[in-house]
Amino acid sequence: MEHKHFFPPQDGVSLASLAAQIGAEVTDAGAGERVIRSVAPVYRARQGDICYILSRRSKEELKTCEASAILCDKALKSLIPEHIPVLLSSSPATAFARAGALLFPTALRPVPVTPTVSGVSSAAFVDKSARLEADVLVEPMAVIGADVEIGAGSRIGAGAVIGAGVRIGRGCTIAGGATIQSALIGNNVIIHNGARIGQDGFGYAPGPAGMLKIVQIGRVIIQDNVEIGANTTVDRGTMDDTVIGEGTKIDNLVQIGHNVRIGRHCGIVAQVGIAGSTTVGDGVMIGGACGVNGHITIGDGAQIAAMSGVLSDVPAGERYGGVPARPMKDFLKDVAAALSQSESRKQKSGKND
């Protein structure tokens, strides 16, 4: 099967037009009429494709590249083969993302499973008290409960369940199999397949007969332009709210505990677990498979390296890593010392043999 079976090449746009739309500069004026139809990685890009490089590590891949254009910054222009036109950009990754969005707009959101063009499928259940604005699409087997409100242009995917009283803003996509309850959702939010939003959090009190469940009567508030990945869970608050701030992007398979408050424009990568009542500031980046303790604060702009264990507060703007997470300089020193000790033991063992 060819690479582009699910997202075939587009009719195309001229290189000059594409450059203007993504804020890049075509260095070869004669190449402006070349037609760009798709995006591709450097090593297998062919005519009609555009690709990008960010470092000199792409030098070997350029040997097999036959792209119609390559995006890069000025410092890397000399690496590009002479037969390939260059698009200069101070932020080539951002420019490439814009190019991809222009060429494949339908790939930016989960696509409908059924050919329904608009309206509510006859195979869906929508409670009579639910209020849907214009141009809302509800796919087969979706269930929309009592007193739900859904804004114009939003889509509810096949098999999704929207619990009673939920509010969903305009231009949202709730993909197939997702479940949403006890939640208020802003505009232009994307929730991918199988996500679980608003179920009760993990709260118990020990008693003589075992663990007693603590009721979870808060909400989940998801602000505008948030994206939540497949099979991610966001628990509702115990008594207060769990909040996901504007523009934050959350990967697949992330666990957000009850009462967690995540700021604006954060990035949280797959398999992160954030325990209850933690506060995450604006612009925080958390690498994959991190565990974040409950009742702590991660300050604005902090960065947490992948596979770290965050046990205590992280100051704003700091880079932390390791288990337990600590300032990156300290973590790297500890790693270097451990490697040195390991090598020393190997050498001593070899001499003893």
TrEMBL record:
GO BP annotations listed: lipid A biosynthetic process
InterPro entries assigned: Hexapep, Hexapep_transf_CS, LpxD, Trimer_LpxA-like_sf, UDP_GlcNAc_AcTrfase_non-rep
Keyword hit for Lipid biosynthesis: yes
Any one GO cellular component localisation term in the record: membrane
Entry's EC annotation: 2.3.1.191
Primary role: Catalyzes the N-acylation of UDP-3-O-acylglucosamine using 3-hydroxyacyl-ACP as the acyl donor. Is involved in the biosynthesis of lipid A, a phosphorylated glycolipid that anchors the lipopolysaccharide to the outer membrane of the cell.
Protein name: UDP-3-O-acylglucosamine N-acyltransferase
Organism encoding this protein: Ciceribacter selenitireducens ATCC BAA-1503
Gene symbol of the encoding locus: lpxD
